[in-house]
Amino acid sequence: MGIRVGVDVGGTFTDFLVIDDRGEARVFKTLSTPDDPSRALLQGLVEIAESYALSVEALAGKIDTIVHGTTVTTNAVLTRGGAKSGLVTTQGVRDALEMRRGIREEQYNNRFTNVEPLVPRYLRAPVRERVDRDGVELAPLTEADVLAAAELFAKEGVSAVAVCFLNAFANPEHERQAEALLRKKLPGAYLSVSSTLLPAIRFYDRISTTVLNGYVGPKLRSYIDALLEKLASVKFKGVLLIMQSNGGTVAPEIVRERAAMTLLSGPAAGPRAGMFYASIHGLKNCITVDMGGTSFDAAMLRDGEPLFVTEGEIDRLRLALPMLDITTIGAGGGSIGWIDKGGLLRMGPQSAGAMPGPVCYGRGGVEPTCTDVDVVLGYLPPDEFAGGRIKLDVERARAAIEARIGKPLRMTVEQAAVGMARVIDANMAAGVRAVTVKRGYDPREFPLVVAGGAGPQHCCAICTELEIPLFLVPRQSSIFCAAGMLMSDLVHDDVRSVPGLLADAAPKLDAAVKEMIAAARATLKAEHVAEADMQFLPSLDMRYVKQYHEVNVGFPVGASQKVAGSFHAEHDRLYGYNLAEQKTPLEVINLRLRAVGVMKKPTFPDSPRKGGDAAGAKKGTRRAWVPEHQAFEEVPVYDADKLLHGMRLDGPASIDQANTSLFLSAAYSLVCDRYGNYLGYRRDRLDALPQSVRALTDQKVAS
User: Fold this and answer.
1) CA 300, 302, 303 angle in degrees (round to 5)?
2) Of 352, 291, 248, nearest to 15 (Cα)?
3) Alpha-carbon gap, residue 481 to 7, rounded angstroms
4) pLDDT in tens, 635-648
5) Span 152-173, pLDDT tens digits
6) Residue 702 has what pLDDT?
7) pTM of the predicted structure, to 2 decimals
8) Is residue 642 one of the residues assigned to a domain?
9) How far apart are CA 219 and CA 77, in angstroms?
10) CB distance 156 to 126 below 8 Å
11) Among 132, 141, 386, 526, which one has the highest count of C-beta atoms within 10 angstroms of its own C-beta?
């Protein structure tokens, strides 16, 4: 087996995890290049090659697989930097993008306005055609309308066209006819067709997803082409896989046509990595958080699996594709501190990004950021940041905090820095509450798996805010999502709308599942997946008759008639009641199939236990702010590379790695596990720790 590389392109850094043919893991980071993210990837390969004393071509020849997560599509939506788009849709519903579901997002805000559609009204072309909900043609497609739309789009310089007819989920023939005409008249345009992308009911969800796919498609296609060209230039002959929002990987040829599948590509790998690290200690439930340079991502895992949703939003735009349930907020190392019109201190969501970056980078930044706060508070080593490649200018950071925050609020530099830290910590705690408390879970019952280059500096503060007694910081935390990509499988999601009562639909459902599995099996075979490594997981979107929202429930292949009991139990878990005794009929909306090609996972070498004394890893002290004591103190600093399995230390302390630093506050202790990961726990809450963790700490619960 050759080298495998996981790559996560973030807003500030591009992260790499390299697993070589001996199983050795190496971590690399390089600054992102927002104008062309593929340049950062190639630069990273050059640096990796240098570390192995190889040319980049020689390294590329040894790489079996590159798994790549990208923020290209996400950034295109957030910045409204996608393609100029047109829409071809059924006459009479061209305004569905503005009408949405007819529900105002903020019900009590009389001045609330809907998000501006990605396609302006003059580029939404109505077409005369009609198919009923059962797929019966009521009026043929008027080809002249499609040709007129193509003429308009060519005149206006449209580069992406979405095609979405009213009941195309039931009969896609009219969309196929329109697609053929548009391909002939607009050969260079990116076509996004709803019956290919999302053949499901709920017209607004389908039209919004189809438009989103078209809007980001040209940008992703250009990026994929540039990436493949750069990899070819260094003679890469291995397999390139792209991370999807659903936590699985897929070939680049597929995402070129289904670009919307990558809208949460980067963060989706995080829960996969969290699941691996938690399972080392027998933990099946956990919360994962990833604090990078620009954003903070939070997700929850139950029973060893991340939570999924089948619809969501990105910047208030509906996306109805399967994705991991991740909350993302603008809270990262580059988040800028500012004072609002009411005189309140805020942190983010604006970010200094990679260029110019935080003030302490010395690259021209003038706005104080979270990283500037961390270096002023003593949580980062000024001379060893990013492995010594970036020297942090503490005085410049202090001056920016004083000028922009301290003086306006009549605070000292230290007071302002502490206040900024408290604000961003509270923001991140709110992000964790969004994936736990809002879903009926108590965060105190879940260990926190902490990642990202900035996450370990703030993990104790987040845990204190949420009263979480246990956290885990992986040794590879600074490239968490890159690691998660190498732990992901090939995944294909398919959906069919099969509306009707469950009692009547069972035979039809089982037949449809067989058809979907046959198509998925052919796709996986084309991707060289062995039959033994294939998994097929059908599920149903169901509800009680007259309900509005559905519940997704899995079932064994060929046993759709047995799904009722699972539905009642899941409905009761989610909403606190079920209607099984009332014998309320169950209604099926969608049939879904997840096809998985299980990939070989990396293994990390473990180490024998060395004992509890960590004194040999101590390398000095650093002046740092200790929240529990409300004072600056000289705290011991430990070399992460010298902390071995079983070594334990008490806070306050700082543990420095090449690519991150962990600040351990006074209430917490820390112990290393057999993979070199750090388990942090409150010394006054030993009773709340799992037995496997408690045994590793060598501490006994007071009777």
Assistant:
1) 150
2) 291
3) 8
4) 999 998 899 888 99
5) 999 999 999 999 999 999 999 9
6) 46
7) 0.82
8) no
9) 11
10) no
11) 141
How far is CA 59 from each of CA 50, 62, 63, 485, 623, rounded to the nearest angstrom? 9, 5, 7, 20, 42
| 64 and 127, same domain (yes or no) | no
Domain count, the chain: 4
Beta-bridge partner residues of 500: 588
Residues 593 and 679 in one domain: no
Asked whether residue 284 falls in the same domain as residue 193, the answer is no
Partners of residue 7 on adjacent β-strands:
16, 68
Residue 511 and residue 541 in one domain: yes
Give the pLDDT confidence score for residue 38 in this predicted structure: 85
Q: How many CB atoms lie within 10 A of CB 622?
A: 20
- Residue-range definition of the domain harbouring residue 58: 3-77+222-261
Q: Both tokens of residue 159?
A: 């580069």
Distance CA 169, CA 133 (A): 8
| Pairing relationship of beta strands 631-639 and 653-656 according to DSSP bridges | parallel
> How many whole angstroms separate alpha carbon 395 and alpha carbon 22?
44
CA quadruple 125, 75, 268, 525: dihedral positive or negative?
Answer: positive
**pLDDT band at residue 87, thresholds of 50, 70 and 90?**
very high
Is residue 278 one of the residues assigned to a domain? yes
Strands 470-473 and 448-451, sheet pairing: parallel
Average pLDDT across the chain, whole number: 89
What would the pLDDT profile of 316-325 be if each residue is shown by its tens digit? Answer: 889 999 888 8
Confidence band (pLDDT; 50, 70, 90) for 354?
low
Within 8 A by CB and 6+ apart from 173, the residues are 131, 137
Residues 6 or more apart from 569 whose CB is under 8 A from it? 578
Give the span between the Cα atoms of 377 and 414, in whole angstroms. Answer: 7
Whether residue 383 lies inside any domain: the answer is no
Do 288 and 409 reside in the same domain of the chain?
Answer: yes
Judged by average pLDDT, the poorest of 144-148, 295-299, 366-370 is 295-299
Specify whether 71 is located in the same domain as 123.
no
What would the mean pLDDT of 471-491 be, rounded to a whole number? 87
Question: For 246-282, how does the pLDDT look when each residue is reduced to its tens digit (9 = 90+)?
Answer: 888 998 999 999 999 998 887 788 888 888 888 888 8
Using alpha carbons, list the distances in angstroms from residue 158 to 65, 115, 127, 191, 218.
36, 21, 18, 11, 11
Alpha helix (H) residue ranges in 250-377 = 252-257, 269-279, 370-376
Token pair in block for residue 231: 């990899």
- H-assigned helices in 527-665: 563-575
> Is the per-residue pLDDT at 689 higher than 90?
no
Direct distance between the N- and C-terminal alpha carbons of the chain, in angstroms, rounded to an integer: 52
Domain of 52, CATH number, reads 3.30.420.40
Closest CA to 287 of 267, 308, 271, 269: 271
| Widest pairwise Cα distance in the chain | 83
- Nearest partner of 455 among 298, 320, 348, 587, judged by Cα: 298
Give the per-residue pLDDT at 699: 62
Q: Are 479 and 273 in contact (CB under 8 A)?
A: no
pLDDT at 279: 87
Helix axes 173-185, 143-156, angle to 10 degrees: 40
534, 681: one domain: no
